[in-house]
Design goal:
single chain; mainly alpha; 5 helices; about 80% helix
Length: about 130
């Protein structure tokens, strides 16, 4: 139970928070490729990917998911980012925005690239 509360519960809670924020009616805003809104999406999905990686890596039920936790976390965050935008299409006063999807994937990608870089750097340091 402690492992679940430490690794899986924060991931689930963050997904619920993202869904909750996606459900709040919004006012028309300026659509730009890079705005404070897009930076928020990048940060939220960077965190989601980190939490997904931790949840997948520190679980004992699915070996493949544990071994491929980083890729799975990236793919899950990208899918979830797209799904939340599709969900918003069904809500009043909300619209889907392809730039939000891009920002979500960028956030997930930043974490993915950072972890790959760290893993390779650690491998080179121990191999020298």
């Amino acid at each position: 139970m402690k492992k679940f509360l430490t690794f899986q519960f924060p991931f689930i809670l963050w997904m619920i928070c993202i869904l909750g924020l996606s459900s709040i009616p919004s006012f028309p805003t300026f659509k730009a490729l890079l705005s404070l809104d897009k930076v928020g999406h990048i940060v939220m999905f960077l965190i989601l990917t980190w939490l997904a990686w931790r949840a997948f890596h520190f679980q004992d039920r699915v070996e493949w998911l544990r071994r491929h936790a980083l890729l799975s976390g990236f793919l899950f965050a990208g899918f979830y980012g797209g799904a939340t935008e599709i969900y918003q299409m069904a809500l009043p006063n909300r619209t889907a925005d392809i730039y939000d999807v891009v920002a979500n994937i960028v956030g997930a990608g930043i974490f993915f690239v950072w972890r790959v870089y760290r893993r390779r750097s650690a491998g080179q340091a121990s191999g020298s």
